Design the sequence.
């Protein structure tokens, strides 16, 4: 970098009366986010950087004496500032003030004190920017117990900026960091200071080998040991690593740990979910009881209250998922598990970390799509988000129960079991094949070389996991929640208007949604769907579980129907078309089942996809592709079943 | 070798550092180069090369070594295994004379690299557990530039020393205190020169 760039002195504190902004940056796995959480606690929020799906966090930090208030921007961990990768780009743009037009007032470069050589290469690239800087020598609690620990004072002299040993996990050294942050934002940083710093750094165009040699020299001069000496535990660590990344053992261990994870989520989340459901059910009843019959009562009870309930019911699952995933990531296991399954998913253009969102989507696509944030590569992440709703979520279960119940009526139990397994397998296969198609068309691009850093095994931090959970829950409720609520109200309006005199069945058929179903019946005619079934399918585009209650209403069983109820199954199964033929003959039932396995019939999922990708383009592609695949597959299923029925 | 390549592999002292040191300190004899980050005081393989650089600099020539970094590392690996230097183009060994001269400060002859000598390089996947090796990234040409840069930034740069934690495919290597899991297709393209024999492996 040219020293000319430093001709203008940097400001001494925040501009326009705002608190000074500090960019927090460093290599991945340096404990950067733990340190950020320690500094900001719950005063942080997740922010998607403009024009990028990379996320960072912005928080405020106030020193215990209350004198200094700082705005900290936690940038994504990057291995280098010069790479053409989203995380590197975001860091570069932030340091240049190109991200949101506001240049940071200083940098806090987090360096892992147990691995200074590689971290200092990144620090050198950051220090070449015209900003005052502090190097936080993180994980000091671990580093100082090792022989040949780096000397912070000497390192400070070599880098030309303050170096503060800290521990994000224990909170050690934070008081000194506060003092350093106070000083660095208060003192002027002019051209002279930058020139003095640049003289200590390698040239801007230094090769990676030269950069490594420079870092090596600095580390050696600062007293740290650089040669590799296996520590006492490394043989055990080697063995554990060998098992956890083994092509078969590793995949088995990963599947087992994920099965345990989701078993815990299902078991523990069920009760709070039921309570939330119960609470909002009672609240809706209370609204109905308190207000006179009419549109306002319906809107509040069936639109607003039901909409809020529909959002919050997912919260226990989302909180638990992110809490447990944070623990797994923190202790170092997640990287190993992802590494083990990577070779399988790579064939479909996905990464090892895609496994978690895809598995999670079997419970519900919403937490699945949100957990795709774990995936570092942009294309891998988008492909995972696009195909996650193909996985059979728990909302599909009532529909499967109904349709398989009709399909396998009078047949041995194993037929129904096979059909259930087939539905899950069909969803997973369609998802993987769609990912392959996406990676070869709209998300075409090089697959990153599978080189993954395997962080050290550590005790996970409960505080960190709790903060991550709090953050994710906030994101979900604030962003997805508001959108889902709005959509729920709109869908209520579509099914409640225009008002029709008569029972629920008449209302269902006369509503905008019902009329739309009738209008679109010719489209679904090749699948064997009559007008009633089309209305059921159309209303289920809001949420697929609505299909059961809609069909029950149309069959005259009542709106509170449950597919597990034998009467409902019989009534829906015996529904007749206008010409007297059964609605659910074998080809139609098979086509409907395949359609429900593959179709995108969940507006909250589309809303979350929009939120996570930052564009309506991706939910539109998701909806279009899934509907197309579902229609084509249902058509094929109808034809095969019709041919089979004809043959038999 | 270019200016950023390491001449002293024990202490990772590059040719650039040595030349800068000579320009700054103007050493009268080659042995004074040991004051540049301890160059030549480890396994002592580089002593004849340090001598050659000093000779060239003393004569006012541009210091340089006509040997590729990979070959240099491979020859050093063999030297460390057998304790003997590979014969130079004159058919003799330069080790005893130049090493003693280096420490006594008497100028002597310089080694000449053997251009016909092939370095011992094997794929990373063929190393055994605990074995150490010097990485040669020059064969990674079929990886896109961005991916190569990512590997370098993660610590897997040319001439770095790795230790194998899990051999085979996929393999796990340790560079300093960083563990990297590398898939088979990438690991097979990374050629390495083993620097330790069986006795040098992890216990």
Sequence:
């Amino acid at each position: 970098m040219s020293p000319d760039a430093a001709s203008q002195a940097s400001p001494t504190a925040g501009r326009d009366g705002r608190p000074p902004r500090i960019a927090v940056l460093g290599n991945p796995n340096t404990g950067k986010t733990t340190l950020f959480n320690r500094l900001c606690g719950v005063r942080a929020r997740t922010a998607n950087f403009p024009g990028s799906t990379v996320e960072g966090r912005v928080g405020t930090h106030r020193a215990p004496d209350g004198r200094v208030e700082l705005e900290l921007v936690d940038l994504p961990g990057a291995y280098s500032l010069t790479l053409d990768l989203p995380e590197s780009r975001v860091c570069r743009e932030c340091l240049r003030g190109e991200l949101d037009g506001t240049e940071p007032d200083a940098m806090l470069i987090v360096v892992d004190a147990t691995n200074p050589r590689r971290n200092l290469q990144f620090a050198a690239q950051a220090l070449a920017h015209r900003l005052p800087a502090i190097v936080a020598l993180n994980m000091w609690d671990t580093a100082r117990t090792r022989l040949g620990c780096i000397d912070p004072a000497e390192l400070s002299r070599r880098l030309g900026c303050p170096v503060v040993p800290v521990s994000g996990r224990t909170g050690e050294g934070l008081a000194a960091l506060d003092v350093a942050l106070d000083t660095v934002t208060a003192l002027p940083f002019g051209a002279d200071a930058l020139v003095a710093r640049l003289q200590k750094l390698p040239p801007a165009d230094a090769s990676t080998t030269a950069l490594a040699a420079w870092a090596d020299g600095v580390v050696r001069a600062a007293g740290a040991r650089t040669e590799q000496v296996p520590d006492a535990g490394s043989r055990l660590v080697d063995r554990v690593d060998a098992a956890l990344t083994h092509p078969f053992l590793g995949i088995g261990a990963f599947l087992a740990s994920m099965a345990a994870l989701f078993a815990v989520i299902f078991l523990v989340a069920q009760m709070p979910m039921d309570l939330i459901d119960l609470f909002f059910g009672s609240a809706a009843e209370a609204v109905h009881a308190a207000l006179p019959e009419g549109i306002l009562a319906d809107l509040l009870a069936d639109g607003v209250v039901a909409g809020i309930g529909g959002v919050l019911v997912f919260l226990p699952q989302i909180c638990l998922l992110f809490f447990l995933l944070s623990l797994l990531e923190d202790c170092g296991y997640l990287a190993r598990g992802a590494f083990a399954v990577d070779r399988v998913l790579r064939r479909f253009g996905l990464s090892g970390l895609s496994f978690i969102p895809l598995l999670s989507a079997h419970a519900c696509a919403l937490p699945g799509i949100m957990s795709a944030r774990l995936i570092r590569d942009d294309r891998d992440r988008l492909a995972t988000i696009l195909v996650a709703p193909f996985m059979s979520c728990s909302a599909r279960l009532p529909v499967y129960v109904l349709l398989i119940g009709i399909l396998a009526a009078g047949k041995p139990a194993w037929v129904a079991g096979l059909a259930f397994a087939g539905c899950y397998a069909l969803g997973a296969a369609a998802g993987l094949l769609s990912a392959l198609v996406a990676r070869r068309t709209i998300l075409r691009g090089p697959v990153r070389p599978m080189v993954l850093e395997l962080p050290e095994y550590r005790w996970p931090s409960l505080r960190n996991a709790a903060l991550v959970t709090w953050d994710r829950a906030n994101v979900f409720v604030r962003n997805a929640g508001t959108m889902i609520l709005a959509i729920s109200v709109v869908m209520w309006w579509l099914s409640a208007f225009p008002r029709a005199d008569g029972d629920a069945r008449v209302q269902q058929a006369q509503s905008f949604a019902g009329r739309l179903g009738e209008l679109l019946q010719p489209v679904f005619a090749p699948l064997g769907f009559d007008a009633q079934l089309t209305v059921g399918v159309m209303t289920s585009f809001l949420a697929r579980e609505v299909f059961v209650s809609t069909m029950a209403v149309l069959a005259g069983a009542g709106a509170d129907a449950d597919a597990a109820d034998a009467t409902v199954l019989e009534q829906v199964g015996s529904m007749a078309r206008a010409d007297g033929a059964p609605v659910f003959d074998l080809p139609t039932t098979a086509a409907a089942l395949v359609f429900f396995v593959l179709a995108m019939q969940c507006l909250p999922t589309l809303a979350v996809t929009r939120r996570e990708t930052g564009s309506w383009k991706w939910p539109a592609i998701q909806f279009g592709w899934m509907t197309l695949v579902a229609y084509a597959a249902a058509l094929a299923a109808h034809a095969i079943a019709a041919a089979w029925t004809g043959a038999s | 070798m270019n200016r950023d390549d390491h001449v002293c592999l024990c202490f990772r002292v590059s040719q650039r550092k040595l030349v800068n040191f000579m320009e700054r300190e103007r050493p009268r004899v080659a042995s004074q180069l040991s004051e540049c980050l301890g160059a030549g005081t480890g396994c002592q393989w580089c002593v004849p090369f340090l001598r050659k650089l000093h000779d060239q600099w003393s004569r006012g020539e541009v210091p340089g070594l006509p040997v590729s970094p990979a070959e240099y590392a491979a020859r050093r690996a063999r030297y460390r295994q057998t304790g003997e230097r590979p014969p130079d183009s004159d058919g003799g060994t330069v080790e005893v004379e130049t090493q003693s001269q280096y420490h006594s400060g008497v100028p002597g002859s310089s080694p000449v690299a053997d251009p016909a000598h092939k370095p011992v390089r094997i794929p990373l996947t063929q190393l055994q557990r605990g074995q150490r090796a010097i990485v040669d990234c020059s064969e990674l040409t079929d990886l896109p530039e961005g991916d190569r840069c990512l590997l370098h930034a993660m610590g897997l740069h040319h001439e770095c020393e790795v230790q194998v934690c899990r051999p085979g495919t996929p393999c796990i290597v340790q560079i300093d205190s960083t563990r990297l899991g590398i898939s088979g297709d990438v690991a097979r393209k990374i050629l390495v020169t083993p620097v330790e024999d069986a006795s040098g492996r992890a216990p």
Q: What stands out?
A: Chain B has six helices and eight strands.
